[in-house]
Amino acid sequence: MYYKLLFILLFSSCLAYSQSNLEIIYKKKVLPEYLDVDDSLSIDKKQNYSRIRNSVKNHIGKHTYSLSIDSGSSVSLFEVVNTMDIDGNERFNNSLKGILGSRFPIYNNLKKDSIYENADFRGMNYFTRYKSPRYDWDFKNETKQILGFKCYLAVAKVKNDATLFDFKDGKTQSFYAWYAPSLPSRYGPSFFTGLPGLVLKAGNDKFEIYAVKIEEIDQVKFKFPNKTSITENQKLMKLQNLIRK
Amino acid sequence: MKKVFSIIALSAMTLSLNAMNLDQPTECEHYAMEQAAAEYDAGLFDDEWDSLDSYLYHLDICESSGGNAEPVVIIGN
After folding, report:
1. Which of A1, A79, A135, B53 lies in the 20 to 30 Å Cα band around A120?
2. Nearest-CA neighbor of B36 among B6, B65, B61?
């Protein structure tokens, strides 16, 4: 009888979350490996790299991000919400926001199995559609508690094949995500989506984005943009034209 | 007739030279790519948009200084 009651309670709380609109607040931090500078570099380069990385470490937490989930339309919006910009250093601020792909708003439309990045760059809009999930997740058995929710680990490896820059060509990036099956599935920050539970923590070997607050909200403050999207390849071609003017 | 041929030859030469210019990165493009790669290696960003930002920023500096851009100190507070 006790277990039946417990099951009903757990099931109804999961159901409640899956049907309500949510707002999740995230922050970012650097991981210890980011501060490791290669010993084979020259002293000057090592000092410069250390200075930059410590600067990123000191400032990365100044930006806050929100993920708003509209359960009715099955769409979410992930965006920068609060910034304490470093005065007069727009490029540095953008770099901080861009780490883990969170500089521009990202819509996740479950009905279309797609993620849309709404980038405004140098006077042009690039509303780009990606398939969701963007990464091929490999599911692990490890679990941990995040904000009181039991989360499971998923990992992915992504090779940079289609990139604008030679210095990124062929490099492989490893990502991880901790998702909570008791919270609405397939949503997450940035491009960390498509998992069987809400992603509360994710990152690569150098940076991490993590949830600091989850709350139910009456109404979301966004609408999915009514405009034509471009594919990843079309975006790449447009950006290549920017490089070769 | 000779005149027509020489005009065609000249036009062809001009076209091929233009095509070469389009294919060959300029010194400023080289410089901007090196700077963007250096900032990426330093760990200043990991995002494609910021790589592009960095490249275009350094390209602008180089082109506006007539191709004589000084090595830029990588940003960061």
Report:
1. A135
2. B61
Within the 32-61 window of chain B, which residues sit less than 8 Å (CB to CB) from chain A? Answer: 33, 36-37, 40-57
Q: What is the ipTM of this complex?
A: 0.84
Residue A52 to chain B, least CA–CA distance (Å): 5
Residue A106 lies in a domain: yes
Q: In chain B, what residues touch A94 (CB-CB under 8 Å)? A: 49-50, 53
Interchain CB contacts (distance < 8 Å): A and B: 95
Q: Which of A92, A204, A242 has the CB atom closest to B52's CB atom? A: A242
Overall domain count for chain A: 1
Residue range(s) defining the domain that contains residue A81: 21-243
Residue A8 falls within a domain, yes or no? no
Q: Which residues of B touch A208 (CB under 8 A)?
A: none
The percent of residues above 70 in pLDDT, for chain A, comes to 89
pLDDT tens-digit profile of B24-54? 678 899 899 999 999 999 999 888 899 999 9
Tell me what the mean pLDDT of segment A194-218 comes to: 97
For residue A17, how many other CB atoms are within 10 A of its CB?
19
